[in-house]
Amino acid sequence: MKLTTQLFMSPHLKLDAYDPEKDAAEESGFTVDLNYLWAMNMEEAAHPLTVYEIKKKREAQLKKVVEGKPAGCFAIRRKEDDRFIGVVAFPWISWTNRNSDFRVMIGNVEKREEYLVEAVHMALRYAFEELGSYSVDSFTGEFQPEMMEACQQAGMRECVRQREAVYRNGRLWDRVIMAIDLDTWLERNDEEVTA
């Protein structure tokens, strides 16, 4: 990484502290989208979350970080107007194995189309260059083609396919784990990481 590399800034976005008092109200509206909700918690029953539920969930995540537990959570904001558009979360970090897992959730479908690739790149840059991960993965599935495409554009490849593991819209879908290692990241992003 160059000394001038901005971990928390990209051309259009910035990663910022998540503010449960301010951001939970906006994020609550995003949970009517099943893709957003699934990325928040893949195991809970799907239902739109209230502001209170979002606030408690995010406060619990932030508490883990403060206590030094292996997790992370950032608000995604547009640089032009500081508007909250979603979350980058690191629900699992294995320091011993130098592996981390991330989720990128953007609430508005149009904003997702516009910013998802950029947000995935920011999440990967943070995982490799700040967390020191050697490998990084993200859970998605064939029911989220835009997330799979964003991961592929960032150099991630399918490493695990769990057949018919997610029930959505009256049918079973494959869950897919996308992954990338540090060597691949460095090859693809040498302009960011060389002096």
Biggest beta sheet attributes: 7 strands, mixed
Going by CATH, the homologous superfamily would be Gcn5-related N-acetyltransferase (GNAT)
Q: Work out the radius of gyration.
A: 16 Å
Share of helix, binned: 25-40%
Number of domains: 1
Tell me the total number of β-strands. 7
CATH class: Alpha Beta
Q: What distance separates the N and C termini? A: 7 Å
In CATH, the topology is named: Aminopeptidase
User: What shape does the CA trace take?
Assistant: globular
Mean model confidence by pLDDT:
91
CATH architecture: 3-Layer(aba) Sandwich
Are there runs of 5+ residues with pLDDT below 50, and where?
none
Helix/strand-derived category reads alpha+beta
Q: What can you see in these coordinates?
A:
The protein has 195 residues and is of the alpha+beta class. Helices cover 38% and strands 31% of the residues. The chain has a seven-stranded mixed β-sheet with strand order 1-2-3-4-5-7-6, with helices on both faces. A hairpin with a 5-residue loop joins strand 2 (72-78) and strand 3. The longest helix is centred in the middle third of the chain and has 21 residues, at 109-129. The chain is globular and about 40 Å long.
Short description:
This protein has one domain (13-193): Gcn5-related N-acetyltransferase (GNAT) (Aminopeptidase, 3-Layer(aba) Sandwich), CATH 3.40.630.30.
